[in-house]
Amino acid sequence: MKSIFVFLCIAFSLSISAQSIKASVSSDSILIGNTIKVTFKIENTEAELETPSFENISIVGGPNYSNSVQVMNGRKTSSKSISYYLKPEVEGQLFIPPVTIADGNQILETTAIEINVYPNPDGIINNIEPEGSFFFESMDFPFQGFNNDDFFKSPFDDMKLNKEEAPKKEIQPKSKSKQKTRKI
């Protein structure tokens, strides 16, 4: 009886994981005209995040989803990241409001994030992702200036062959060669 109780306690402790939601931004201060990336990371819950409303900030990209599930030594953990690319519309101090999700009896909430937006008289545009953050961004592709029609175009499309001008060659059947046999 005691061994069953110990087994159940261990199994129950391995199945419990802390549920959480966190919010982060690529930068807490930017120049007007630039974009920031806000990421909401939800851990160990199946609750869905509704698109948050942002005041004086427009959504220019997203939502982008990333999911991860890991089982190690009988313990399951999962995480889901949802990111948006945001562009502030005014200068000054702006806030990304707290986001709340409900998972059964539990309510999870992020903290508000402050963003300082400064004037941009020189029109400087910064890349919000670190260089080489994605696999394909770190490579130089020669196809960047092509459109789809150019990419699928065959080099033989420009060749003009007229059947009458093409040299004609007669094909002669191969003669049967005699095989030599030896007696042993």
Write structural notes for this entry:
With 184 residues, this protein is mainly β. The protein has a single domain, classed as Sandwich (Immunoglobulin-like). The chain is 10% helix and 36% strand. The protein is built from two helices and nine strands. The chain has a four-stranded antiparallel sheet with strand order 1-3-5-4, with no helix packed on it. The protein is elongated.
Question: Which homologous superfamily in CATH is the superfamily?
Answer: Immunoglobulins
What's the shape? elongated
Total number of helices:
2
Return the CATH class. Mainly Beta
The whole-number mean of residue pLDDT values reads: 75
The end-to-end distance, rounded to whole angstroms, is 85 Å
**Based on DSSP secondary structure assignment, what is the total number of beta strands?**
9
Indicate the low-confidence ranges by residue numbers: 4-15, 130-148
The main β sheet shows up as: 4 strands, antiparallel
| Alpha-beta content class | mainly beta
Rg over CA atoms = 32 Å
Give the CATH topology: Immunoglobulin-like
Order of strands, widest sheet: 1-3-5-4
Count of separate structural domains:
1
Relative strand content: 35-45%
